[in-house]
C-alpha cells in the first residue's frame, strides 16, 4: 500500500453501527446524537486535521451515522449479515457465512484504499478474515469501547459496569479507544477516559453520560492514531 500521503492526509474509512433505543440518547435531545456525528463534525470543522472520511459503513439500514454521512456528502454502504446471507446462499453454516461476510467487508474497505479504519459502534466481532488482509497492507483499525482497559470487554459493557457498581465492586468506569487485534477489546489503548458512577443514577443515565464521553474519546483517538501514522512515515523515510 502506498503510504506516501500519510503526512498530508489520513483517509478514514469509518465503520458506524448506531442503534438508538429508548435507553440511549435521542436525536431530538442532543445535537450530536452519536459518535459518527461527532467525528463527521470534527473532520468538517478541522478539529481533526488532515483527514477525510472516504466512506461510512453500517450493518443497520436505519443507522443515524448513515443519515449524517449522506447529509455531509460522504459515500455510504449498507453491509448487513442477513442481506449478505440471502445473496450468498451457498455458505454451509453460520461460521462459514460469517467468514465470508467479514472477508467481503475487508475487500470493500480495501477498494477505498484508506489509511485508517475507525470502528465506532460496530457491534460485530472482527474476525481474522477481516483483520488479516488489512494488517497485511498496513492499515490499522481502531475501536471505541465503553469500558476501561481490562474491564468489561465485549457486549453490554455499560450494563455490566453498572451492575458491578451496585454490587460494590467498582466506583468508576470509562471509555477507551484502542487498536484492534484478534483478542476482543484487548489492543493497545490510544485514549482512556474515566467516569465516576453516581450512586443515585440509573443505568440509562449512566449510559447517557458515557455516550457524551465516547464522543470526546473517539475524536481524540483518531487524532492520536493519525499522529502515529505520521510518525511511522517519518521514521520509515528518515535517513539511517
Structure, described:
By secondary structure, the chain is of the alpha/beta class. It has seven helices and seven strands, in the order βαβαβααβαβαββα. Strands 3-2-1-4-5-6-7 form a seven-stranded mixed β-sheet. The longest helix is centred in the C-terminal third of the chain and has 35 residues. It is globular. The N terminus is likely disordered.
The low-pLDDT segments are: 1-9, 14-32
Helix and strand succession? EHEHEHHEHEHEEH
Helix content: 40-55%
Specify Rg, calculated over alpha carbons.
18 Å
Distance between the termini: 22 Å
Number of strands: 7
DSSP helical segment count: 7
Largest sheet, if any?
A: 7 strands, mixed
Q: Look at the helices and sheets and give the structural class.
A: alpha/beta
Strand percentage lies at 15-25%
Briefly summarize what is shown:
By secondary structure, this protein is of the alpha/beta class. Helix content is 41%, strand content 18%.
Highlighted features:
single chain; alpha/beta; 7 helices; 7 strands; disordered N terminus
Write the layout of secondary structure elements.
Elements: E1 10-16, H1 35-45, E2 51-58, H2 64-71, E3 76-78, H3 81-87, H4 94-112, E4 116-120, H5 128-136, E5 141-145, H6 157-166, E6 172-179, E7 189-196, H7 203-237
Parallel strand pairs: 1-2, 1-4, 2-3, 4-5
Antiparallel strand pairs: 5-6, 6-7
